[in-house]
């Protein structure tokens, strides 16, 4: 026996060579769309500090979504977890209900201690107070249809499984343990300034993924949350939630 023989890998996983890179090609296919999204957030903050007008910065969002869509399309053939679409009627209803519950909690968990930092949000109103409906449409499209796919590929399909084993594609969702669950939930939560709401959402999406063993379940729930949140924001004018 060698000194490595006593290492126990999660069931269904294969050990990687010692000199293997930290992230393989499959990992980068899930990291890059998410990294591009974060890049535009940072770029917007830098440009704002440089004095670029807020009305101009709003158009970074369509550009951001276009870049993410392009990257998702580029790597689409590598996303085996999305092919074929697999979601039973019970799973779909559960995901839909979860998305609604997460939305209610998202707009409720807003006490001062549940928030860190501040968010200017996305205010599509012009100088005259008129809403730019093209920007609203792009924002809801991006939040409801693009972001859920991009984020679930990163947080659930990649990171959650990668924490369990570097050869993450061999890890079944049902095999994920407490370590993967907690780390991914905390990181997902603190990605948002509504950190407690983010933790609750991350836990809900994690449970759907582990229970239903298909990424389409958290994608659907995430899409429902984001889509309804967009409608609520437009209806109430609470632009900071965007």
TrEMBL record:
<dbReference type="GO" id="GO:0008233">
    <property type="term" value="F:peptidase activity"/>
</dbReference>
<feature type="transmembrane region" description="Helical">
    <location>
        <begin position="88"/>
        <end position="109"/>
    </location>
</feature>
<keyword id="KW-0472">Membrane</keyword>
<dbReference type="Pfam" id="PF02517">
    <property type="entry name" value="Rce1-like"/>
</dbReference>
<feature type="transmembrane region" description="Helical">
    <location>
        <begin position="27"/>
        <end position="46"/>
    </location>
</feature>
<keyword id="KW-0645">Protease</keyword>
<feature type="domain" description="CAAX prenyl protease 2/Lysostaphin resistance protein A-like">
    <location>
        <begin position="136"/>
        <end position="227"/>
    </location>
</feature>
<feature type="transmembrane region" description="Helical">
    <location>
        <begin position="130"/>
        <end position="150"/>
    </location>
</feature>
<keyword id="KW-0812">Transmembrane</keyword>
<dbReference type="InterPro" id="IPR014346">
    <property type="entry name" value="Prenyl_protease-related"/>
</dbReference>
<keyword id="KW-0378">Hydrolase</keyword>
<feature type="transmembrane region" description="Helical">
    <location>
        <begin position="215"/>
        <end position="234"/>
    </location>
</feature>
<dbReference type="GO" id="GO:0006508">
    <property type="term" value="P:proteolysis"/>
</dbReference>
<dbReference type="InterPro" id="IPR003675">
    <property type="entry name" value="Rce1/LyrA-like_dom"/>
</dbReference>
<protein>
    <submittedName>
        <fullName>CAAX prenyl protease-related protein</fullName>
    </submittedName>
</protein>
<feature type="transmembrane region" description="Helical">
    <location>
        <begin position="181"/>
        <end position="208"/>
    </location>
</feature>
<feature type="transmembrane region" description="Helical">
    <location>
        <begin position="58"/>
        <end position="76"/>
    </location>
</feature>
<keyword id="KW-1133">Transmembrane helix</keyword>
